Amino acid sequence: MAKKEYSFYPGCSSQEKASSSNYLKSVETMCEELDIQLNTIPDWNCCSASIGYAGGGELPRLALSARNIALSEQHNAGQDIVATCAACWLATKETQERLHDDQDMMADMNKVLAEAGLKVEAKSPIRHMVEVLIEDFGYEALGSHVKKPLDGLKIAGYVGCQTNRPFGIDGESFENPKYLDKLVETMGAEPLENYDKKVQCCGGALAFSEPEKSQAMIKDIIEAAYDGGADLVVTPCPVCQMNVEVYQDHINAKYGTKFKMPVVYYSQLMDVAYGRNAKDAGLDGQVIRAKQLEEIANKS
Amino acid sequence: MSDLNTAMIEKYRNSFLKEVEANVEEGDWVKMCMQCGVCSGSCPLGPHWEHPPQEIFMMIRAGKRDEVLQSDAMWMCTSCYNCIVRCPRELPITHIMHGLAHYAKRLGLAPKNQPTAKFAQLFWDNLVKSGRVNELKLGLSLYFMNGFGEGIKTSLKMKNIGLGMVKTKRMNPMEILGGHGVKDKSGLQKILNKAREIEEAKAQGA
Q1: Final residue in a domain of this structure, among A85, A100, A129
Q2: Within 13 Å, how many C-alpha atoms sit on residue A100's CB side?
Q3: What's residue A300's pLDDT?
Q4: A172 and A252 in one domain?
Q5: Whose CB among A105, A142, A274, B173 lies 3.0–4.6 Å from A33's, allowing a Cys bridge?
Q6: Which residue in the set B106, B157, B172 is minimally distant from A17, CB to CB?
Q7: How many CA atoms lie within 13 A of A232 on its CB side?
Q8: A31 by DSSP, 3-state: which?
Q9: What single-letter DSSP state applies at residue A136?
Q10: CA dihedral sign, ordered B175, B176, B179, B180
Q11: Which residues of A touch B187 (CB under 8 A)?
Q12: In this structure, are residues A235 and A202 in contact, taking their beta carbons and an 8 Å threshold?
């Protein structure tokens, strides 16, 4: 397979020693296996996620993503921009859409960017890593790399919000997207049928500011996974991963539950199925260790 | 910014809807709402809104300026986009809620102690400083946003989560000294200043 190249926007949470650094590690391993080259956008900045709106008005907020797009066009010309973080993908894609919908805004934005010697056209597609996997490779090609099928694992595919809405993955429904289940199946594990909290919001940034309200929703997400007999939860989103994983002790204390459900990234499943070790898959980064997955990874 | 608030009241005396259309991000969509209630029914924070989106839209049209802008309702939005994908008229509801929240903040009308309003501002201040979010400083500033005593209490409650993150190398105590950031900080500042300048000029002249 020819080497595929993309302009890569990693985002704040994927940086070294940041909250989803294990996601980045596992994506790097996955890309090695699939012969994908990610060219990081030089000097990229934060996209302001979905909570920056209070401090930043429309133009300042969108200017953040416009700067990233401009840098990508300058340094990685002609390459699709790929993000692994749901919020990064959404913010960047939304900015592109607004710039094209509104010529006045495009003109204003270029005045703004000119302050730092940049200009933007925003022509290249802006994609999530799972789009790249599904559209540029396909399930069959992804399956052909499997060396250690994840036999016997039952996995709840938790898609969450922003990888799913408002853009979603082409051809998938907003209410019951199937791609994550198909990916789980492709890696040899069993997806949880009818996982009814599949697209439930985890609270996003409100998990920090309104913990009670968010944790009530997170509880339902984990409970539904247990109810279906899942061994672990898989997600494509850094905020979903963190929110659903790290508050389980607090939820247990509040609701008298005994949750200890590992929450991993799709890329970590793929690394293990592709025969890579637990460290390469970033599994040492789980606060709740995914022991069954580690066992498969450690099997010779 | 109460001067701005006074100026806006004067300028749009007879129509809060017109004010929203002219000044709130995506606000020109408000008049398209047909009051079906799908947004309110689809919202995961539905039970917690003082006024769910559908009600907010009706209140805007009814001229309930203070009730809308001083409400903590818009700050309940988790940005899950359920309302957007389900709205039969394709209103960008999430963006309108963010827009209303930002506008209320700019006018100085947003509720002072709304935790998400505070956190959202902390997030913005954190990111513009170096160009990339410093998660450690953001977390700490969140814990201490209601004063020192509260901060210590929250920090203790969150201690194990923090330790778990440090142990798995997903948090770096050294970030307190600076941490990640863009190289071209001055370029980024210039961009943000210019964007603010253009936006403010438009608001004054609108």
Answers
A1: A129
A2: 11
A3: 80
A4: yes
A5: A274
A6: B172
A7: 25
A8: helix
A9: I
A10: positive
A11: 115-118
A12: no
- Spatial contact of A273 and A146, defined as CB atoms under 8 Å apart: yes
Q: Under CATH, what is the fold of the domain B3-110?
A: Fumarate Reductase Iron-sulfur Protein; Chain B, domain 2 (1.10.1060)
For residue A19, the enclosing domain spans 4-129
Q: Round the average pLDDT of chain B to a whole number and report it.
A: 94
pLDDT digits (tens, 9 = 90+) for A177-227: 999 999 999 999 999 999 999 999 999 999 999 999 999 999 999 999 999
Residue A82, min C-alpha distance to chain B (Å): 18
Digit-coded pLDDT (tens) for A44-88: 999 999 999 999 999 999 999 999 999 999 999 999 999 999 999
CB neighbour list of residue A32: distance below 8 Å, 6 or more residues apart:
none
User: Are residues A31 and A154 part of one domain?
Assistant: no
What does the alpha-carbon distance between residue B194 and residue A129 come to, in Å, rounded to a whole number? 33
Q: Residue B1's pLDDT is what?
A: 57
Residues A71 and A125 in one domain: yes
Counting every residue written for chain B, the total comes to 206
Residues from chain B contacting residue A206 (CB–CB below 8 Å): 45, 76, 78, 116
Reduced to 3 states (helix: H, G, I; strand: E, B; else coil), residue A175 is coil
Q: Strand A81-83: give its sheet, edge to edge.
A: A36-40, A4-9, A81-83, A126-128
Whole-number Å distance between alpha carbons of B97 and B64: 16
**Contact, A126 vs A91, CB < 8 A?**
no
B189 CB near a chain A CB, below 8 Å?
no
Interface of A with B in 37-76 (CB under 8 A): 43-46, 48-60, 63-64, 67
